[in-house]
Amino acid sequence: MIRSRRALIALFVIPALIAALAVAVTADAAKTKPKALSLRSTTLGKVIVDKKKRTLYMLSSDGKNKSTCSGACASNWPPAKAPKSPKLGAGLKKSKLKVITRSDGTKQLAYAGHPLYEYIGDSRPGDVNGDGIVAFGGTWHAVNKSGAAAKKPAAAPAPAPAPSSGGYGY
Question: Terminus of the chain with fewer CB atoms < 10 Å: N or C?
Fold first, then answer.
């Protein structure tokens, strides 16, 4: 009888526990899968970042949904690789997202007609060290949520001085 209990446990309980564990692991993985593109606050305001939270850039000389960056350019500005089913974070529009095919056959993400790139000079999430660099035939800009070049947020205007009670009495 002891053998049959052990056999029942081995036959039914252990596979059920393994199945439950597999479901839990799969559910956690699905919850934590990062978006291909999302927004992050930086010194340039909110910019588009990749799944590792690295700032993405556009090159002013690229054509609409056409990359001109290859060779040494792509070594310094790696193209944003396109996953099979790219997903967007809040604030970004699916209608502006496109997967383009590069001249070497690889897939690259483009947003609002701009092929997207990382910059090797950014070492931490949120860095925007590549913004404004002139290289490889154009100017590099971090990309904002509308798909345009990100601009440094305007400083708040200084408040007007309070009227004085003394003085010249005009």
Answer: C
> Helices then strands (H, E): number in the chain?
3, 8
End-to-end CA distance of the chain: 109
Q: Judge contact between 144 and 47, C-beta under 8 A.
A: yes
What are the angstrom distances between the C-alpha of 41 and each of 8, 18, 27, 62, 131?
56, 42, 29, 25, 14
| Cα-based distances in Å from 136 to 49, 63, 72, 109, 170 | 22, 14, 9, 19, 61
CA distances from 149 to 79, 94, 138, 156 (A): 17, 19, 13, 21
pTM equals 0.73
Which two three-digit tokens encode residue 88? Answer: 């967007």
Q: What is the mean pLDDT of residues 40-57?
A: 96
29, two tokens: 């993985």
Q: What is the mean pLDDT of residues 80-101?
A: 96
Distance (Å, rounded) from C-alpha 47 to C-alpha 80? 14
Residue owning tokens 């056409």? 66
Q: Distance of CA 135 to CAs 78, 115, 140, Å?
A: 14, 16, 8
What is the CB neighbour count within 10 angstroms for residue 143? 24
